[in-house]
């Protein structure tokens, strides 16, 4: 029965999407362009270096090296091997869905067990600092001080989720085999041995390793771009068809219970689907206090949005890693992020500005030249060239491989 209902739901959703695109072709095209520009200018050029570096770190044995060094830290805190430190560091620095991508890659290489990978995926998918400080704090709220508060709450909540997820299936004895434990010597010596052993066991030439790293990264980023465009169109069509308004009316009732303006309902719903649009709409909502806006923005950042969740689900589909622990991590992340904002809003923001929450101005004329703003402007200007150039390189690599075969 459930299977039949699922089939009907999928068929109905696909039919609705097709009819809506036919009914609103101009608006669908504009939404597609918006999503494509976001991927072309920001997402692809900002994530590509991290994806390629992650592949190279794994290929050259650096992950093994770092894993041995970080084992005494990662295992007690998060109940994952030391290699999880690489996933955590790059996932928090580069933004979603890097944590899922690198975790899946380590699982495919059997560096992580299924349970360890599920623990990691649950707390290593976070927004990158560039988006928080540049796009949200400066671009949407026009206040760089706000970025510090949001970032502290967002990343601290990630750590707290990780500490909670260490108890996930803790009774299962599924730890990865660590041959280095049987090798005598210092931790650094064992780490160096692990790096050397992994490199010598990989007989592939440097050119093939580089080519595979580039192609794997491009394939993942193209998939991510497709989801960004799809959910940009879907979000727009739900608004045009009136479905968003119907759902928002239910959210309005919940907001009323918490004495919040009902105007926040539609922006919050948009953020559930796509973070960037939702955060922008929340920041532009009238009659809402800055405190409430920051709480909602932190919540949708923690939730990741259905667009990013779909990207993660697609990445995990190629492995045996389940999606449920990741989704549970999102709910935990929301709880921790909201609580941290409520606790830290006054000491980290209000007291720093020496104003009350209701008196904090939004200055739209200040010329900010922070690193995040400069980076965003640089990506907007040169990002498309990087994207197109990299795709051409990938095409040439595929062409060369096809000729060799």
Automatic annotation (TrEMBL):
Keywords, in A-Z order: Membrane, Transmembrane, Transmembrane helix
InterPro entries: Gate_dom, Spore_IM_YlbJ
Limits of the Nucleoside transporter/FeoB GTPase Gate domain: 43-136
Top-level taxon in the UniProt lineage: Bacteria
Bilayer-spanning residue ranges: 6-24, 36-60, 80-99, 120-141, 147-168, 288-306, 327-345, 382-399
Any one Pfam family match given in the protein's UniProt record, by short name: Gate
Identification of the protein by name: Sporulation integral membrane protein YlbJ
Species this chain originates from: Alkalibacillus filiformis
The organism's taxonomic lineage, starting at the top: Bacteria, Bacillati, Bacillota, Bacilli, Bacillales
